[in-house]
């Protein structure tokens, strides 16, 4: 059984002291390939560097809405150059986040719209973030209809109407360990049944969102890519599938989405 983690923040400082061990544990738990999230200018550079150093790693390049205030012409040129690299397989992480508003909404909209234009220019898939900004998010995306290609809304945590807006547009949906959170993720256990198998992607969002149903719970509370297998098993149970079926389908969908060749075992 092979898994693809479509969203892992492996440039995070918490991985620096044991990076190789993190990758080895992931392999032992069936994670054959990982896509490292680029969420800022420097983060995207670092993600590419890691992908170049490890054959099973790939990268995205983008500016997260939290960092939208930093987006300028120099950043846009950098992203344009990064998107030309073979190891960079998607544009993003980009989108809108009105939950925290770490950047002003006007800055978020500007950075998002510019990155949508970059995706249209380079033809690579979109790796998107949306929280409490659904109406503006959909409006921005609909303005680009016919100009952008494959799209995944990563770390989906929304409600039924949001999910079906995405599915109606033929987008992919990324599910994380949020589904394991009995305080705020229980609604996902029913919603995940509605995602077609060919558009369901799995991710850890490591080091964030450690699944709360992992046993034993690690003392450090860091989420690792190795826990993707646990997320897969939880999603499979909620969908009424065998974990092997969920793994096979989500892995095939991830490889198609990002254009990845199967990993050598």
State the distance separating the first and last CA atoms.
11 Å
| CATH arch. level architecture | Alpha-Beta Barrel
Form type = globular
Q: Main beta sheet, described?
A: 8 strands, parallel
Find the CATH superfamily. Metal-dependent hydrolases
CATH-derived topology: TIM Barrel
CATH class, please?
Alpha Beta
Radius of gyration: 17 Å
Summing up helix and strand content along with how strands pair, one would put the structural category as alpha/beta
**Portion in beta strands:** 15-25%
Question: Percent range for helical residues?
Answer: 25-40%
What string gives the helices and strands in order? Answer: EHEHEHEHEHEHEHEHH
Structural overview:
This protein has one domain: Metal-dependent hydrolases (TIM Barrel), CATH 3.20.20. It is 39% helix and 16% strand. The protein has nine helices and eight strands. An eight-stranded parallel sheet has the order 1-2-3-4-5-6-7-8. Helix 1 links the parallel strand 1 (3-8) and strand 2 (31-36). The longest helix has 18 residues, at 105-122. The mean pLDDT is 97.
Structural features:
265 residues; alpha/beta; TIM Barrel; 8-stranded parallel sheet; 9 helices; 8 strands
